[in-house]
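I have been asked to look over a protein record a colleague put together. The record follows directly below this note.
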Amino acid sequence: MPTGVGTLAGTSGDHHSPSSSEGMATSESALKASKWVTLKTTKNADLVLEFLRNHGFDQTHIVKTITGQPSLLALHPERNLKPKMDFLTRYGFSDSRLIKLVSREPTIITRSIDKHIAPTLEFLRGLIGTQSDVIRVVDRLTFILRPFYQERLVPNISALREHGVPASQVSKYIIKCPNMFFMRATRFREVVIVVHGMGIHPSQSIFIEAIKAMVCLSKSNWDGKFEVYKSFGWSEEVILFLFRGFPKCMMFSEKKIKREMEYFIKDLGWEKSYLSKSS
């Protein structure tokens, strides 16, 4: 059996032993992970697994962590892993959030505190505002700690600030819907320019709501929903008027848009001009 697999599968010592099906699943995962790291003895691997158990990691978390970063089995838990775990705990991550973070992004405890972890968290705090908000965002999107995604984040935030979006609004939406900030910078900037050109003032929260609606839709989706509104006799001007006041109107499915429009216009007899101005 490859190094560390017995312990990882919960079959050694006095640790809780999983059912046979669970044991087979964890063994298979451990076998895959162990192929990516060469160990001379099982001693260090067993220490790593024991370290994770002592920090509240259950069998699923352990397998996910080791499968995601097999090289952890070769690291010394007290010298290499504990300082990172302690730092994140002091920063404010609860036990449950720390376990979630490490099992999803195990590379975080292989990186330098001074060169990566601390600067990354400080970078995010500068964008978001407070440590508690940083923790909330990281808890939702653990991948935000990867350098690649930070590189995506910076130019998109710059595009908003260049167009006059207040820092408080940027921070609010990084917390509220962070995913929208990770699209290609060129596409994001295009959307910002289009929304600005619609006449929505950047100081209004609806400015970012409109950007959010547009970045979530492909051109075909946008055009398809536009055509549904047009089918009820609305001009492009009226549709855009509605969008400027209520960007979520383009987030509904085509089926829902059609159903709601039929209800208001055909069943209730509302004039399309009244409906667009009332939204």
User: Anything to note?
Assistant: The CA atoms of residues 64 and 248 lie 37 Å apart. Confidence is low (pLDDT under 50) at residues 1-31.
